Sequence to fold (678 residues):
Amino acid sequence: MFEKILIANRGEIACRVIKSAKKMGIKTVAIYSDADEDAMHVQMADEAVHIGPPPATQSYLQGDRIIEICKETGAEAVHPGYGFLSENAAFCKALEQAGIVFIGPPPGAIEAMGDKIESKKFALEAKVSTVPGHMGVIEDANEAVEVAREIGFPVMIKASAGGGGKGMRIAWDEAEAAEGFERAKSEAKSSFGDDRCFIEKFVVGPRHIEIQVLADKHGNAIYLNERECSIQRRNQKVIEEAPSAFLDPATRKAMGEQAVALAKAVGYHSAGTVEFIVDKDKNFYFLEMNTRLQVEHPVTELITGVDLVEQMIHIAYGEPLAMAQEDVKINGWAVEARIYAEDPLRNFLPSIGRLVDYRPPLEGTADGLTVRNDTGVEAGSEITMFYDPMIAKLCTHGPDRISAIDHMSRALDAFIIDGIEHNIPFLTALMEHPKWRSGDITTGFIAEEYPDGFEGGQWDAETELALACVAASMELVMHDRLHRFKDKRKLDSMQMHEHWIAVFDKHKRIPIRYRGGNPTTPIDMDLALPDGHVTSVLSDWAPGWKLWCGVVGGKELIVQVRRGLNSYILTHKGVQQEVKVMRPHVAELEAILPKRVAPDTSHLLLCPMPGLVVSIAVKEGQKVQAGEALATVEAMKMENVLRAERDLVVSEILVSAGDSLAVDTVMMEFASTNSDAA
Fold:
C-alpha cells in the first residue's frame, strides 16, 4: 500500500480524504494557498506545503507545482478530491510521466467522459439512453437560437466542460436562448477556461438520479445503488438522499447495469458517477459521467457501509475489488444537506466573512440514528470569495426515509453558525415541506415551491405556545439569578412574579403564568398558558448557552438562543423571531413605543452580494424598462444579472467593470420619475 499521498484540494473534501488515509495508515501531504494557511485540512495532514496566492489559477490549479511537491515530500500518489484538477486529463498524464499514481480514472476515460459533447456521442455508441439534442459546439447566440428552435423549447444550454451548475441555462423562448447562451459561455470561460456550449432538450418535470460505480484495473465493475439529487437551485444540488423514493428494483437494476456498461466501455477504474434524468414514467436518460468522487458520496457510504475514498486508494494501488454486485445492499436511508455561506432571505446571495461561532451537532450513532458532518472549517475559519461557499455537508441516517428526514431536522436545529449568513433556515424549512416529505419532487421543486424566493417560514400556533414557554423559562432563570444578588437595591426588585407576557417580534402576545417549580438549572417548572392549561418545562439550559434543549409539555425541543436587547432571539425549524418576556404593565408601555422605519433605498441599486463587477449594461441618462439588465456581478464563479425592478432613468453610475464590491455597495443612482426607481 502507498506510504504517503498528496491531497490536491482544500476544505471539506481534503479533510474527508485525510480521514480515510489515516484510517489506512497512510501519511498525507496537504497543499494550501495564502487564504488557507490556517485551514483545517492543513492542520489535519502530516505535512503541508504552501502553493501560491488565493486565486485557484495561481494555487490549486498549478499542476506542475503539485508534481514538484510530490517529489519534494515523497508522495507516491495524488488524490484530487472533486473540482480543481480532479477531471483534468493533462494533469493525470503528467503525473503518470512523473511516476506518480493518480487516485482516479485513467486519462482516456477522463477525456471521453469529461467533455459533455463527446461523452454523449460515446454513450450513444455504447447504447446508453440519451436526451435528444444538438451535440455540436454552438458558435454564437444566433446559432443557439436556431438550434433551440429546431429542437423545440424548452432547451438546456450547457457548457461542454461544465459542472456544479456553472455554465447552464434553461431557455423557454428565443430571447432566453440568446441571453442564456451568452451567460453560459461567459461562466464556462471563467470557471473552466473552455467556453464551448451545446444544447439539448430540457425534460420537463424530471428527477435527477445518479448511479455510483466502482471499477478496478482488472475489468471488474459494480454499482452501489442510486442517489436522488432532485432538490436543486440554479442547477446546484441542495439536498441529496439514498436510495431514491421513486425507483423500483427493476428500474434501479436497469440504470445500474447501463452505468456499469458505460464504465467498462470507456475502460474506467476508480469511483465514478453516471448521472441520469428520469421522467415521470421512469424513462431515464444519460446526463453525464463524473469521473471523480461526488460531493454527495456520503449518503451512498451510509446506506452501503462502503468507504468510497478507501476503495479509490485500493483500486489506484492495483488491488481488485473486494466485493461483487451481490454484496451490495441497501441499509436504511440517508439524507445530505449542503450548508452554504449564502443568505436565503436575500435570494441566496453569497455571504463571506469569519465564522465567529461554529458548533455542528454531535456526530455519531444512537438509537439507530446517525449524524455525520463532513466539513473543512471550524470556529474562526474564514469564508472567502475565492472558493466554493460550502461550509459543511450534514448527513443523517435512519432505518427509513422519514426517520432520516426528522433526524436531519433536529440536527439542523442544533447546528450553530454565527458571523455569516447561511442557508440552514431554508434547509430546515425543506425538511418540513410536505411535498419533500412525501417524495413527490422534481428538479423544479425549489423554483415551483418558492417562486418568489425564500421568505422564511412561520411557526404554527402550537409551536408558538411552546416557544413562549421556552423564552419564559429562560427569563425566569435570569430573574432568579438576579434575585439572589446580595446587593440588589430593593428587596422585591427581582421577585418571582406570577404574570408575564411573551411578545413576539410580529406583535403576537401570549400571556403566561408562572405556577411554581425550579427556576434554576436544571429547569423544572410549571407554566400556565392562555387557556389555563398547565404545561411542564424541563431543560438543563443555563444563561449564556446558545442551545436550549429540553421538553415542553412532553414534546422534545431544540431551540437556538441568542440574546437581543432585553429579548431572546429564538431559531427553531428554520424560523427566527425575537421574543421579549416582560411584566404585563411593561408590555403595555412597550406597545406604544415608536417603531424605527427603515431608510428608503428605492432610488439606489445596491450590490446584493460581495463580488466582482463583470459588466455595466447601461449608461448615465439612459431610460430603462422593468426587467432590463443593469449590471452583471460575479460571486464565487457564478454570474448574477442585476435587473431593473421597474421603469427608471439612470442618473449616476458609481462603479466600473473590474471593481470588487462589498454587499450593499451603492452601484447606481436613479433620477426621480413618475414611476418608482429600481
About this structure: DSSP finds 17 helices and 40 strands in the chain. The two ends are 62 Å apart (CA to CA).
